[in-house]
Amino acid sequence: MPTTVILGVIGSDAHVVGITILDQALSAAGFDVENLGVQTSQEEFAAAASEHDADAVLVSSLYGHAEQDCQGFHELLAREDIDATTYIGGNLAVGQDDFEQTRTTFRTLGFDRVFDSETTPEEVIRSLERDLGISTREAETDRVQA
Ligand code: B12
Q1: What is the pLDDT at residue 5?
Q2: 92 CA to middle of ligand 1, Å?
Q3: What CA–CA distance (Å, rounded) separates 11 from 61?
Q4: Which of 62, 67, 102, 119, when mutated, tests ligand 1's pocket best, judged by the most ligand atoms within 8 Å of its CB?
Q5: What's the CA gap between 103 and 109, in Å, rounded?
Q6: CATH number, domain at 69?
């Protein structure tokens, strides 16, 4: 079974470069990526996660309004019975001078992991492999050999 990841930029945010790079890197590593693009609502994330039976939901935000945009998101996922690992990353707070405080804020909102804007695609892949208990490269090799 491929590992399905929902990816998108939440709220009114239109910064597309980060998720485009993540989409390419995750796809190349063997993940099945549903890229919802920019300006994605909480409801669109939840609908896609439900439809694709997602293993992970990756929320991106760059423009400084992530905290407001993510209020109630995990409550919505719970109501829809979605049990996926959730990550958020990007430029999550205006200024972002104390990332540990930012991490606490988003962990309290329910995210399993919180990433800053220095995060590389390789770190995201390693975290997903660890959290989901998979090795995508091995899985890819298995598929090629099968
Ligand atoms: C290009 C850019 C724009 C372009 C966007 C073009 C486009 N369609 O993408 C334009 C000019 C349109 C723009 C507009 C705005 N921008 Co702008 N923009 C940038 C800029 C210069 C680069 C962003 C970028 O593409 N980076 C390159 C990619 C590869 O990096 P990345 O996005 O950070 O993604 C990486 C990581 O963050 C991480 N990552 C990202 N998402 C996720 C998600 C998960 C789950 C994980 C694990 C990892 C992860 O992985 C990615 C790959 O390594 C940044 C400054 C900067 N240097 O970051 C400002 C910046 C993000 N913008 C900013 C602002 C304020 C705005 C505006 C609000 C300005 C305005 N007043 O109009 C508007 C918002 C418009 C909107 N509705 O979104 C601020 C945000 C401030 C804050 N958060 O505190 C920044 C930081 C500039 C600044 N220093 O003030 N912007």
Answers
A1: 98
A2: 10
A3: 8
A4: 62
A5: 10
A6: 3.40.50.280
> What is the largest distance, in Å, between two alpha-carbon atoms of the chain?
49
Distance 60 CA to ligand 1 centre (A): 10
Output the tens digit of pLDDT for each of the chain's 146 residues.
789 999 999 999 999 999 999 999 999 999 999 999 999 999 999 999 999 999 999 999 999 999 999 999 999 999 999 999 999 999 998 875 689 999 999 999 999 999 999 999 999 999 999 999 987 654 454 444 44
For residue 100, the model assigns a pLDDT of 93
> For ligand 1, which residues put their CB under 6 angstroms from it?
12-18, 21-22, 58-60, 62-64, 87-91, 94-96, 115, 117, 119-121, 124
Single out the residue of 57, 47, 44 nearest to residue 83, CA to CA.
Answer: 57
| Residue 146, number of CB atoms within 10 A of its CB | 5
Dist CA 124 CA 91 (whole Å)? 15
Q: How many domains does the chain have?
A: 1
Dihedral of CA atoms 91, 92, 97, 103 in degrees, nearest 10, equals -130
Give residue 132's domain range: 4-145
